[in-house]
TrEMBL record:
Active site: 215
The species this protein was found in: Psychrobacillus insolitus
Cofactor remark: Binds 2 divalent metal cations per subunit.
Keywords: Aminopeptidase, Hydrolase, Metal-binding, Protease
Protein's name in the database: Putative aminopeptidase FrvX
GO molecular function annotation: aminopeptidase activity; metal ion binding
Any GO BP: proteolysis
Residues given in the record as Zn(2+) 2 binding sites: 183, 216, 326
Cofactor(s) needed by this chain: a divalent metal cation
Hydrolase found in the keyword field: yes
Family matches, as Gene3D superfamilies: Peptidase M42, domain 2, Zn peptidases
Top-rank taxon, per record: Bacteria
Pfam family, one: Peptidase_M42
């Protein structure tokens, strides 16, 4: 790998960190390291979401920019007598992307054990069974232990976190970045760089860069962090579907990597706030920032929890078109990342109390 610049190093540190829902300590520590220099104050909610405050006008509206710290992964549920590990998915997985993939089990002491996801080999299946995708309940993790006792001697216990094994890489096209956990360390990186970009800027509000916990299991951390922040406006920054791979029709997705941030019109968790959506689109147009519209009928983001917290928070989900989400490796485009940061900064610089009052009922 060629030498990484500061941004790529941050993205590598964030995506290489291991953290499924309920086990976000490592990515939280990485996010805190990178966001602290640009924050006036760092706080947490009681579930572990990180909240970094940057004050522009202490009497201005509160703007929340949230990624989520957790990634999809697994949890050890049982160790059998021969040392094989049963597991539970944590977050949404498609069974076809799981078999024969390398994983890392993180023990209670923080040590990492390497394993591989296995199942009954196809050679001994019936012709009918071979045509079907393997069921998750028939899979196991092989760590090379010869017994339950040996696995436990190595520190493995039920409840241990399991994450995909995959290292951050810059592809041959240096704009394309390959890593695990883009969902949603890219949102955390955007929150970091938004605060960084506002470091020497005047802005008529208070900005909160947030790393939520437990998004992948029901948008849970966003509920508690939103109650703690009490924002006037909420942005969830997450990955979205990239519709530029073979087999995806224009009816399913028109999003392309490199075509700008996705303005999510609706998903399974919310209808985007019309006034806020129009404000963001106008800001993109004024600043010649590329953008694209997206609808995601089969998924949700933290904006789904944010917008129905308290007495309602006008919210918008902004996505980064990403290939192969909820698998061991995803690809996204660096320009989309940088344009999303730029767009959110320009939006924040314009949002004052008068603007909030206008757009709420737009």
């Amino acid at each position: 790998m060629s030498k990484l610049d500061d941004t790529l190093m941050m993205l590598k540190d964030l995506t290489d960190a291991k953290g499924i829902a309920g086990n976000e300590r490592e990515p939280r520590q990485v996010m805190e390291k990178y966001i602290s220099p640009y924050a006036d104050k760092i706080e947490y909610d009681n579930l572990g979401s990180l909240i970094a405050e940057k004050v522009g006008d202490a009497n201005g509206p509160k703007i929340m920019v949230a990624g989520h710290l957790d990634e999809v992964g697994f949890m050890i549920s049982k160790i059998d007598d021969r040392g094989f590990l049963s597991f539970q998915t944590v977050g949404g997985w498609w069974s076809q992307v799981m078999l024969a993939q390398r994983v890392s089990i993180v023990t209670r002491k923080g040590e990492t054990i390497t394993g591989v996801i296995g199942s009954k080999p196809p050679h001994i299946l019936t012709p009918e069974a071979r045509k079907k995708a393997a069921d998750v309940k028939d899979m196991f993790i092989d760590i090379g232990a010869s017994s339950k006792e040996e696995a436990m001697e190595w520190g493995v216990l039920p409840g241990d976190m399991v994450v995909p094994y995959f290292e951050f890489s810059v592809m041959n096209n240096e704009k394309l970045l390959l890593a695990k956990a883009w969902d949603n360390r890219i949102g955390c990186a955007i929150a970091i760089d938004v605060l960084k970009g506002l470091k020497d800027e005047l802005h008529p509000n208070i900005v909160y860069g947030v790393g939520n916990v437990q998004e992948e299991v029901g948008l849970r951390g966003a509920k508690t962090s939103t109650v703690k922040v009490k924002p006037d406006i909420g942005f969830a920054v997450d990955v979205g579907i990239a519709g530029d791979t073979p087999g995806i029709t224009a009816k399913e997705s028109t999003s392309k990597m490199g075509a700008g941030p996705q303005i999510v019109l609706y998903d399974a968790s919310m209808v985007s706030h019309k006034g806020l959506r129009n404000f963001v689109v106008d800001t993109a147009e004024e600043n010649s920032i590329p953008y694209q519209f997206e609808t995601i009928p089969g998924g949700g983001t933290d904006a789904g929890s944010m917008h129905i917290s308290l007495n309602g928070v006008p919210s918008l989900s902004i996505g980064i078109a990403t290939r192969y989400i909820h698998s061991h490796a995803g690809i996204l485009h660096r320009d989309d990342y940088e344009n999303t940061v730029k767009l959110i900064i320009e939006v924040i610089k314009k949002i004052d109390s008068e603007t909030v009052n206008k757009l709420i009922f737009d």
